[in-house]
Write a structure and sequence with these properties.
Blueprint lengths: L1 E4 L5 H13 L3 E6 L4 E6 L3 H6 L7 E5 L19 E3 L2 E3 L5 E5 L6 H14 L3 E3 L17 H14 L2 E5 L6 H7 L2 E4 L7 H8 L5 E4 L6 H13 L5 E5 L17 H8 L4 E3 L1 H5 L2 H13 L4 E5 L17 H17 L5
Helix pairs in contact: 3-4, 3-11, 6-7, 10-11
């Protein structure tokens, strides 16, 4: 529920309400606005009626949050959340583009891609150090050595780093090297991992599960926020349907639906959605037109020799063309890229 404080409520009154709620077993999340302060309270709302918090000094009203996800809901926070990572923002007017290889293979490969995607306009370098694969015999990633390569290339190029964490035991390690922790589609309902990333100080990029509903996806985000981390970026990457022409089916509907239901930023991964580099540009344009806050795109200098996801990876020159093609689309929806 939301406790709405009166305009001009003092800090002392706000703290008194918080204290009372916490004594009743609620988790509180104060949000300070220009005119009013509201306190998000997660717990058994029946206790509030019994203790007459509505009559405490400074309290204007109590509003129930009807959605099962509380902290990610627009009922709690109406303004869009903008995540700032040392000057790189996600969720604001400028579209955030994350680009790079599916898997980190070598310093040469990573540096070549990083330089090219930065020249084209990307601000964030993506690359997998840990690669959870369907087959145990497939390339599983360079692990910590890959993390070190990402960090070194990021430092040299000025690009921010996003990479996947797949195990609760690795959250602290990955946090030492990455700017954004990615939770992959296969891990979306690994609730221990969600909670552990919620305790980390780094923003979290949460991919939608293979067959997850939007509510299940937002509930997964709720785990991260409820553990203390408000900086979550949602990523639509296509869901599994009966269609086999593409790798997954991009749910373009999810973009406006999530924008209506949640204040969190949402980006789209057209590479995993299509599974084919020839369709990535069209789907990327459609995603920006639908209101996405950014894109995650796989780029490789030689896709034919890629250790992972070569067929859906763009060559650097194709990525540059894509970025140029996105500019009029972004302008049409009052965004910049």
């Amino acid at each position: 529920m939301i406790i709405v404080m009166k305009p001009g409520a003092t800090q002392k009154q706000i703290e008194a309400v918080e204290k009372q709620l916490q004594e009743l077993g609620f988790h509180t999340h104060p949000i300070y606005g220009e005119v009013k302060t509201v306190i998000g309270a997660i717990g058994d709302k029946r206790m509030v009626k019994a203790n007459n918090i509505v009559h405490m000094d400074g309290v204007e009203n109590i509003v129930p949050i009807m959605s099962p996800y509380k902290l990610v809901s627009r009922e709690l926070i109406n303004e869009n959340t903008i995540i700032d990572i040392d000057g790189v923002s996600i969720g604001g007017n400028e579209l955030a583009v994350m680009a790079g290889p599916c898997a980190v293979e070598s310093e040469k490969q990573l540096m070549e891609v990083a330089i090219k995607v930065k020249e084209a306009g990307a601000k964030i370098l993506r690359g997998g150090a840990y690669k959870p694969r369907t087959s145990p015999y497939s390339f599983q990633g360079l692990e910590e050595e890959g993390l070190k390569l990402l960090a070194n290339v990021g430092k040299e190029t000025g690009l921010k780093i996003v990479t996947e964490v797949v195990d609760t035991r690795d959250v602290e390690l990955v946090s030492q090297y990455a700017d954004i922790l990615q939770i992959g589609a296969r891990s979306m309902q690994n609730f221990r991992l969600l909670s552990e990333c919620g305790k980390a100080s780094k923003p979290v990029l949460l991919k939608r599960g293979l067959s997850a509903t939007i509510e299940e996806w937002l509930m997964a985000a709720e785990y991260i926020l409820s553990a203390g981390n408000p900086n979550v970026i949602l990523c639509e990457r296509g869901i599994r349907t009966f269609e086999t022409a593409t790798r997954n089916t991009l749910d373009i509907n999810a973009i406006p639906v999530v924008k209506e239901l949640s204040h969190l930023p949402i980006i789209v991964d057209p590479s995993h959605a299509t599974g084919n580099w020839r369709w990535v540009e069209a789907v990327a344009k459609a995603s920006i037109a639908a209101g996405a806050d950014g894109l995650m795109i796989e780029v490789h200098p030689d896709p034919s020799s890629a250790s992972s996801d070569g067929p859906q990876s763009l060559k650097p020159e194709k990525f540059s063309d894509l970025m140029m093609g996105l500019k009029p689309i972004a302008q049409a929806v009052n965004r910049v890229i």
